[in-house]
Each structure stands twice: as C-alpha cells, then as structure tokens.
Amino acid sequence: MAQSQQPATRKAAIVGGNRIPFARSNSAYAQASNQDMLTATLDGLVARFGLQGESVGEVVAGAVLKHARDFNLTRESVLGSKLAATTPAYDVQQACGTGLEAAILVANKIALGQIESGIAGGVDTTSDAPLAVSEDLRRVLISLNGAKTVQERLKALARIRPGMIAPEMPRNAEPRTGLAMGDHAAITAAEWEIGREEQDELAARSHRSMAAAYDRGFFDDLVTPFLGLTRDNNLRPDSSVEKLATLKPVFGTGEGATMTAGNSTPLTDGASAVLLASDEWAEAKGLPVLAHLVDAQTAAVDYVHGGEGLLMAPVYAVPVLLARNGLTLQDFDFYEIHEAFASTVLATMKAWEDPAFCKEKLGLDAPLGSIDRSKLNVHGSSLAAGHPFAATGGRIVASLAKMLHEAGPGKRGLISICAAGGQGVVAILES
Amino acid sequence: MADWYTTFANSGVGTTITKQLGLPRPVELRRYEPGQPLLPGPVVVGSAGQGRLRDTVTAVLRDAGVTVQSPVTADGGTDGEKLGAVVLDATGLTGPADLAGAHDFLAPALERLRSSGRVLVLADPPAAAGSPARAAARQAVDGLVRSIAKELRGGSTANAVFVPEGAEESLAAPLRFFLSGRSAYVDGQLLTLSAADVPANPDEEKPLAGKVAVVTGAARGIGAAIAEVLSRDGAHVVAVDVPAAGEQLARVANAIGGTAVALDITAEDAGPRLVQQLVARHGGVDVVVHNAGITRDKLLVNMDAARWNSVMAVNLQAQLDITQALLDAEGALKPGARIVCVSSQSGIAGNRGQTNYAASKAGVIGMVRAWAPEFAERDATINAVAPGFIVTEMTAKMPFGTREIGSRINSLQQGGLPVDVAETIAWLSQPASAGVNGQTVRVCGQSLLGA
C-alpha cells in the first residue's frame, strides 16, 4: 500500500487577541463602518504583537450585517491595516457563530501545516447597517438600468409608486418564521420553564464579573480603545437583580413573559480578532502560547418543523465533541456559554441535566449532567459586553485562552455559541 | 516648525521691528536629522591651562569628518569662514591667572561663530581640586560658561563638561552630542563625567541598533517623540501607556514598528507584569525611559490628598518600583542597560501650584544620583532629564500670556520641542554614553527658572 500523504496534524496555538470596546447600537460607533472597526481591531493586534509589515498566513473574518460594497471586507481591512499587503484574507459568515468558525478555520489550516499563523476575526454594526430598497423598486431600477431608449426609460420610471419608496430595514428576525430571535428564545424559555429571577441573576452576575475583570486589568491586553470608548458601554458595574426586576418583558407574551432588555443582549457594534499560530511560529517570534484549540464541532436543529428551539443547536454539538475527545461535561475548568439571552444559557444547561431530553433527543444513556456555576462565564459574557454578532466568537476565544493561561498548564475550557438559522458552534481550548 | 513669533521675528518687517524695539530674536534651531554632518562648519579647538584633552577631542572630531582648526594658525580653514563650534580645553587650570587664556582664546573665536553654533568648555571637576586656587579656577568655568550661553544669539549654545582624571574615554559621546543638532535646546549646562568601560556605538547613525527600549507614557507628546527617536536610532521600542490611551498608543507603536503594552504603571503588579513581558517577548531590556507623568496642580493649602498621592504614585513611586523590579529579576536588565528618568524644571526651580509635581520631580533627581553607583557596578547607567518649557498639546492649552512668557524666558528665546527632550534621552541611552551616570541634564534653553 502506498504511504499516506496525509500530513500529521498539530494543535493550533492561541497567541492572543484584540478587540475594540463594544458599543450599543447608535452610540459611540454610530458613524463607524464594519471596515473601520475591523481595520482598527487588526491594527491594535498588530501593535500588541509587533506585526507591522508582517505577512501572516491568512486573515479570516466576517460580518453578519454586510453592505454589498463589503464583498471583500476582510481583505480590504487587511489592506488598510499595518499588516503586509501580501497577507491573504477571506470572508466567512455563520451568523453569531462567525467569529468562532473563523478561528476554527484558521486553526485547522495551522493544524494541517498549510499556514503557520493566522488571524481570525469578526465585526458587526447595527448602526451603519445596510438599507435595501423595496423589492418592487429594486426591480424597477434594474429594468431602468437595462433600458436602452428614452422611451424605455420613461416607461420604467412610470412604474414607480409612492409605496415603493420606503426602505427595507434589516431585521433581527428569522426569514423562515418571521419571528425575532428573542421571540424564538422566549418560546424555548417557556418550554424549559426558565424563571425571570434566575435570568436576572445571570445577567447581573455577568455585568459584575466583567466590571471586576476590567478593574483588575484583565482586559488590558485584550482590548484597545476606539473612538474614545475605553470599555464596553453596555456594561453596568452596578447591575443588580433588584434593578433588573423593574424592567418590563419585551419578548414572549402574557403572564409567562420573562425576557427583558436587561436579560437579553442589545444590538451592538464592535469587532474582535484572535492571533493563532503554530507553536514554532510563536516561539520564533518570542510570542506567548496562551492555549491550544483542541477540537470543535458544529450542529444544526430543525427549528422550523422539527420542534426544537432556534438557539438549541449547541446542546446537540457538545455531546458529539465530548464523545470524540473522551471527555465528560464536568471535565472543564471554564465554560463560556454565549449569553445571547440569559434564558438561552439556562435552557442549555437545563437540557444537559434532563435525562429524558438527553436520552430522546441526544441519544445518550445518561444526562450530561450539571455545570459548576462558579466556572461559567467567570469574566462576564455577552449580556455585559454586548453582542456584535460576528465579533462575539473572537471575544470569547481570546478571553478564555487568557483565563486558561492564567490558571496554568493543562486547564480546559468549553465554548458554546448559538447562532441564527438554528445553528451552533462549540469548541474546546486547553492550556 | 518655528512658532508664530519666531516666524515673525525672522520675516522682513519682523526683523526691522524686533531689532528696533529690542525684542527677542529667536531663530529656528539647528536640529539633528539622519545623515546630517556633525557640524555645519569647522571647529576651532583651543586651550587654557595645560590641557590634556586636545588630542582626544581632535581625534573624535576628525573621526566624525569635522575640520579642526588651531587658534594659532587657523589651519584647514579659509579666511573669514564661520565656525560651527568652539571647543576650549580648560583642563589643568592651576589658578585664576590661567583663565586669561580662556578669554584670549574665546573672545576672537566667538566672533566667528555661525548661527546655531556650539561652545563647549572642557574642565576638571571643581570638587577635590587639591588647592583652593585650583578649585577657584575650575569653579570659575561654571560662571564663564553660563554667561557665554546668555551672551550668545542666533540659536547658539554654550555648555561645559567636567572630565575627571581617568574619565577621558568617556568624553567622545558627550562631545559629539553637545556639538551636534541633537543638543539644540540644551544650553548653559554643566555635565560631570565618570570613568567607565566605554563601548563604542555600533553605528553613529544607528547607535541603538539591536537594542530593546521601553518608554512609559508613550501614547502622546514627549513620550511619543521619545519612542520615535529611539526607534529612528535603531531600537525596538516597547511603548507603554495606560489602557485608556490604547488607541493612541497603538498608533505610535505601529508608526515605528514597535510593540504596544497597555499597563497602569501604578498598579501593584505593574513591575512584575512589565518584567515578564520584557523577558518573555524580548529577552530583557537595554533602555528604560521613565517618562510617564501627570500634573494635578493646586496651591498646597488647597490640595487634597488624592492630588498629592496620584502625582507621587505616577511620577516617582512607579519609577522606583519598576526600576527595582527590573534590578531584582534575573535577566531583565541586559548588560550595559541605560535608565533615563524624566524629571522637570519644576523639580529644580519649584513652581507655584505644583508642590506635589515639583516634589516628585526633585525626588527623581535624588533617585538617579543615589542609584548611580549600583548601576555603574553593572556597567549600566541611570540619569535624569529635566525638560523646561516644551511645546506640547498641554502648553497649547495654556493662556496666551503665560505661554508666551514661559517660552521666552530662556537664552534661546523660544520653547523647546518634544524631539529636543527625546534627542537628549536617546543620547544618554547610547552604549558610548557609559561615562554619564547619576546626572540630571536640563533641556531648557538655559531657562531663567532654577538656573
């Protein structure tokens, strides 16, 4: 038999990261474009690791809300940055999983020896969002563009009606159900009987934990200020269950509605980037290895017809990942479960604890069991920082890698991110 | 980049007006640019007393491509050619009578000095002179040089270097500095050298080639200028500033190919964190510039504890703590390390409303003096630089009158630029500056304050 040409794989190192502080929609970054934010984030990373004029193997990033002009967003951002213009780049998009998926893609190429270093990132703005003209007007304008004679042009223009003029705003809604993501999450919350108080507790803890992490300088080498903003402006260090309890529900209906603006993430602008490399590359540059990306898994659920919650895909992805790596849910020192909504985190954990669900839906003999809450989102998560869709993955990967590094060698962390379209992306990091 | 008044005073009508009214006539100073010759004209080297440094001086200058003239024969020069510099070797003075030689040499030589010219007097240190007459003659150099500095016009400067017996090797780097455009705003200063093993600079165009330099407070103003100049001279710069200044800091680091480190230097673990970063990423550090500083002005009677404490913490305690952390950590300070601490004119002269600031900056001067012997044992040095009125974003916000007066009350009749402070720091950071240790060099254009 011919010898296999398959190269041996290695684990990609996470060297560090950078993000700009996240800003609530239409606030500090109202005038900034995706390209502005991603470029600034890359430049902050370049400054931190002395990569000026360097060509890294690949830069992979994306945005969920994207203008047509941003078809080559990442490459354009690289060209505007201090990285060498010879650095290749491409865009990816997997809704809120974009940032983590980008890191997995870069890590896999490093693992295969195809590249020695790479940057994974993500950016989103809901302030500088693309506006579309109505579908009817779009058709008229296209035929106008194709018209060859004056007569044809006039004929095309005559088809315009006042009702066509209103632009279509991008909506945070699922195309197949017409429901907002929050409405979907509210259905899941009701199904799993997630109470208001536990959601508010989780939210308050996220704010307080992240504020404490800022205060002790944890984010000094993870965040670079941008446009005068030095911390995430969604962060409420004095958040409390009592204050959150005063908010009116915004998702779900009637008595059972529990989800408020306080325990749901707001629309947010921001960008993040993570530097990954082979151990050898990092060593040669005198750069640290904070952790390695061990393995990753994606999953999707049929939220349209299959009766599963829109944001429950990570619940399915994690047991696959655990089985492949011979681990149990309890074999981790840190858990980073993206707080799209407090209820999502709580429903996720409840599902893993539920014997019936684990048997029937996940096909497991025993439930995955519970998570030590003191190891969950210990430096806060999206409820505190905000959630610029594609930027959340990079935020979590860099922060978790640093936490693992601080905890010492051999520590393990689990990342779980839910995404629109009923998808989930999960990964294991190890120091 | 002359200020508005300098531009006006050098315009046609401005020249007439300022001359007739006897107003200050500042000129645009000769400042260093890479590739520039050391001096724009020949040097005349003379002596008073026995003079043991003439050969050293001549060798250094010839090596730098400067034409050296003798005062007696004026060889090598053409008639009436303006001088770039005048160097007086006044070592070996035995008593006041020998000073007549200084007058005889300097008076005609100064007449031939071109604009932005340099006068440098080399002498024995007044301390331990052996006899009162000798001490008197040596100390007289102090008054002589300070007065010449005040008499010179057209951007010219006068400084003195005291060279103890055995410290002759230490002279080359200071000699080059004081004659060059790097010392544009250093005027009326007296520097005392010490004996040391003096390595040569690897390259006079890139004296810091291969070095790693840390600059605190590097995001803006003088700190950013220091980072730029150290980088220009060949160093890899680790630019440090508070996390809130990170956006600017990244810009500075990216412009010079350096590394940005967001760090509050007053944090309890700031020293160990910086040491860890320097050792792990750069294998240690060669040059440390303690530049970060803050002001919290108030009259002492109105000053709260917070203002006092924050200024002390940033301006003085952090310099002590970080330096100590670097000394304590194995391999953090590379052999031949150079520490330069930014003091201030206020630390020498005092300033109304700045008791906290002046105390902290005076403390810096005491600190470098006390630490110098320990650094000398490691073939390292620690010095301070005390800027005078330096034109920055901060001074731009001063009221017009205060700013104009502040910038004119010095012998060069103008404010200095951040780059002037940076050049002095870069010079003290050079390998060849090994014989300058425990000193405080003022960059103030011979300010009247605290002189």
Automatic annotation (TrEMBL), chain A:
The keyword Acyltransferase applies. The active site is at C96, H387, C418. Residues 13-279 form the Thiolase N-terminal domain. The keyword rRNA-binding does not apply. Keywords: Acyltransferase, Transferase. One of its GO terms (cellular component) is cytosol. GO terms for molecular function: acyltransferase activity, transferring groups other than amino-acyl groups. Residues 288-430 form the Thiolase C-terminal domain. It comes from the Bacteria. Pfam families: Thiolase_C, Thiolase_N. InterPro entries: 3-ketoacyl-CoA_Thiolase (IPR050521), Thiolase (IPR002155), Thiolase-like (IPR016039), Thiolase_C (IPR020617), Thiolase_N (IPR020616). NCBIfam families: AcCoA-C-Actrans (TIGR01930), PRK09268.1 (NF006740). Belongs to the thiolase-like superfamily. Thiolase family. This is Acetyl-CoA C-acetyltransferase.
Automatic annotation (TrEMBL), chain B:
GO terms for molecular function: oxidoreductase activity, acting on the CH-OH group of donors, NAD or NADP as acceptor. It comes from the Bacteria. InterPro entries: KR_dom (IPR057326), NAD(P)-bd_dom_sf (IPR036291), Sc_DH/Rdtase_CS (IPR020904), SDR_fam (IPR002347). It holds the Pfam family adh_short_C2. SMART domains: PKS_KR. Residues 211-378 form the Ketoreductase domain. Belongs to the short-chain dehydrogenases/reductases (SDR) family. PANTHER family: 3-OXOACYL-[ACYL-CARRIER-PROTEIN] REDUCTASE [NADH], SHORT-CHAIN DEHYDROGENASES/REDUCTASES FAMILY MEMBER. This is 3-oxoacyl-[acyl-carrier protein] reductase. It comes from Blastococcus xanthinilyticus.
